[in-house]
Amino acid sequence: MATTAAGPVVILLLLAAGASVDGRFLSNRTSSAGLVSDGVQDHRDGSPYLFLPSFSAVSASDSCDETYGFMPCTTTVVGNLFLIVVYGYLMFLAATYLSSGSELLLEILGPGIVGGLFLPILGALPDAMLILVSGLSGSKETAQSQVSVGMGLLAGSTVMLLTIIWGSCVIVGKCDLEDSVAKNLEDTKRCSPTGSGVSTDIWTKYAAWIMAISVIPFIIVQLPQAINSTSGRHLAVLIALIVSVALLVVYCFYQVVQPWIQERKLAYIKHKHVMYGLLKHLRMRALGRLLTEDGDPNEEIIRKLFRTIDENNDKLLSKSELRALIVGIQFDEIDLDKNEAVDRVMNDFDTSNDQHIDEGEFVKGVSKWLIEAKRYGTSGPDEGSNSLRFLEAAHNETKRDRDLLGVQSDELIEAVKNPKWIAFKAVMMLLLGTVIAAVFADPLVDVVDNFSDATSIPTFFISFIALPMATNSSEAVSAIIFASRKKIRTASLTFSELYGAVTMNNVLCLSVFLALVYVRGLTWDFSSEVLVILIVCLVMGGLASFRTAYPLWTTSIAFLLYPFSLALVYVLDYIFGWS
Hints:
There is one protein chain. Helix content is 66%, strand content 4%. It is built from 20 helices and 9 strands. The strands form 3 sheets. Strands 5-4-6-9 form a 4-stranded antiparallel sheet. Strand 4 (175-178) and strand 5 (181-182) form a beta hairpin.
């Protein structure tokens, strides 16, 4: 951290050295009017003066306002470009510190409140800061001019995450696809459009659904312009703000309770593993078929099976007898010990709650499990006589469900060492990132505005292309590195984070933007920008909402959407005059 912290110091020194100053130049004028003696009386050229340019000679177009009264500014293209790079790098550092501090805090406190509430907000903090200062500075007219920087950042972040970063993650994380499931660390099909790609768990699909739903406030705020109404625009901004804040609260609540939901689903998967594993084991031990020719549970065979398991012939199965039965069962990579399996069987079979299973309870329990397992089995004519076939099908379906849930037994969670130091380091990183983002957000917005004036390039396009590279670059790099591990779990986390970042743009950053527009009475005139956000979110969200595998051909859609978005805004605003 010490090495990285030196970066802002060096940047600040460069900014101080490049501050705007006025200089003096030599003049050969013979008149002494407006001249100051330099103390040299015998200059051979006869000009013992230095000329100071009058302030009245400097036009308004050649001046700039220093942010905070001391931050450097310039009116030249090269100078503004340099300042954009410098301030952008500082915002990149802010995002990096916030991301690193959040990850350290997550290691100590785990998911729940931290992972569900604080981390998504901290991840969107640099963008939110830039959007906030774009509409707070100066008069209403200045704010109306600079607020396009905030909209450009909002649209640019969303589009970049769902196009360039999304497609890059698919390419670097691609593995062989078999039955729409990626084979971890296997990449033999290389660049096959359909046979190579990534697959994710079911939670990633849910994240894509949420992302698609989060565009509702954009639709609401755009309704008056869609129907050519001018009277209801301010009210539409207020309604969209309320809806956006409500969606933000709901999303954070979902993030908080998601670990609990995931645990419940994992418990159900473990229960199905016990059920199918035990039925397969019983099928091999049974003195006949567990199903009749009609496909119904064969109670006579099940009763005989009970008697073979009942070692002491007391017509009751105890936990020790169940444990002896379950010892030889392999639960196929699921993290489940034998005692837990015994408890699950006892809880499902022991309807009398006497900690024993009698013959009737055993017959009812096995019959119920057989009927449930048949739902996943084949429907061929020999289904009734071949119970092993549908058990295999049911067991394979359970393995697929386990993969969709992202269950991994080969990844161990290590205990955090020295938690107090890590907590202190995390807090310092979060504070430093927040301070940097708060201090340099306003100068960056001013520089973008000055660069736009110097080049006559609209501020929207500058902020759309340049600012997301600064505020989202740390997320982009970490996502690509994480995806390159070529595992289902890492791919799921990568794409879930991308969808989560876009969701926070659509609810948190948009809430800040709408609040600015409403409080300051600004005009909402961003039809083309909103249309671009809607198209990209709905196309990529729809693509991810109905599949868990992303073959390589999907990257072509993602990459093409980025230039399409820029071209669409240009055509709508500057050819059709939408803005």
